[in-house]
Design goal:
Helices cover 5% and strands 56% of the residues. It is mainly beta. Strand 22 and strand 23 form a beta hairpin.
């Protein structure tokens, strides 16, 4: 991995590898470029940023950006965005919240197992109380890149079978690798970002930092981590910090004129009509 963005951005523009990096008035990283038809695109990242890197795999190039969530203990401490490009030269983000380590070489959890097809690890916490003792499982999954998209991977890679599950009897103890319990499969999400495999719907409104969609989806409201919006102005991508104000700015007329969208990483929470999605791919004609 080659670093292209420092953790602390300067006030001036940075031109690197065909991208323009800048800092907006809220001190958030904004990355801009143009697709093959010379239409503009931009992606805005949340603070705080830890850095940005680029990896060249055969004839493709992927950019990685990572930062901190503020999570501590068993909560995910990092966000990661992998940015590849489709056949039209438009950016296709892959997003995850996870416990990730980074060093001077970049993201430690990005594994080059096969040439041109890297694995990115994803870890989450599955809580399970045993009496009055708070314990649970750290579940580590893997996603394989097949440009420009990422797909959930399973099976054995090197010495580890994914998903890998570590049982933590109580907080502070040393976790132990165990076979995956049924509950781990029940809660496991698929964050794959290929829109062709997503759920098509219409965004019909916005309420309390969530989007509302067609009732057929079975969700009263959906929280989203990334919004990809295509319009005549090009492609705009907003990451993580999607408040009602930001959603309304990007989708001002959704209540009057429903917006066609595809959801990837859709998850229905058990015993609830609340849902979440990793990415909403929307289009305004």
């Amino acid at each position: 991995m080659t670093r292209i963005a420092p953790a602390s951005l300067p006030d001036r523009l940075i031109q690197v590898h065909g991208l323009t990096l800048s800092k907006n008035p809220e001190s958030r990283l904004v990355v801009q470029g143009r697709d093959k038809a010379r239409r503009p695109w931009q992606i805005t990242f949340p603070p705080p940023l830890d850095g940005g890197w680029v990896v060249d795999n055969n004839s493709s190039r992927t950019y990685y950006f990572a930062g901190y969530t503020g999570g501590a203990g068993v909560a995910p401490d990092s966000w990661v965005i992998a940015l590849s490009f489709d056949e039209k030269g438009r950016p296709t983000p892959f997003h995850m919240l996870s416990n990730h380590a980074r060093d001077a070489q970049g993201i430690c959890d990005l594994l080059q197992v096969d040439p041109g097809s890297p694995l990115l690890l994803h870890q989450y916490w599955l809580e399970k109380w045993e009496g009055f003792i708070r314990g649970g499982y750290f579940v580590t999954g893997a996603y394989r890149q097949q440009c420009p998209y990422w797909y959930k991977a399973s099976g054995r890679f090197d010495q580890i079978t994914f998903p890998a599950v570590e049982h933590l009897v109580e907080l502070g103890a040393k976790p132990k690798l165990v076979p995956a319990p049924d509950v781990a499969y029940h809660w496991e999400r698929d964050l794959g970002n290929d829109p062709r495999l997503g759920r098509q719907t219409k965004i019909v409104g916005i309420a309390k930092d969530h989007i509302k969609t067609d009732p057929d989806l079975g969700c009263d409201s959906i929280s989203i981590s990334v919004l990809v919006l295509d319009s005549r102005r090009g492609r705009e991508i907003e990451v993580v910090e999607l408040s009602s104000e930001e959603l309304t700015r990007m989708l001002p007329n959704a209540a009057r004129r429903p917006v066609a969208a595809t959801l990837t990483g859709l998850h229905h929470w058990p015993a609830s009509r609340d849902c979440s999605a990793s990415i909403a791919w929307a289009e305004i004609r």
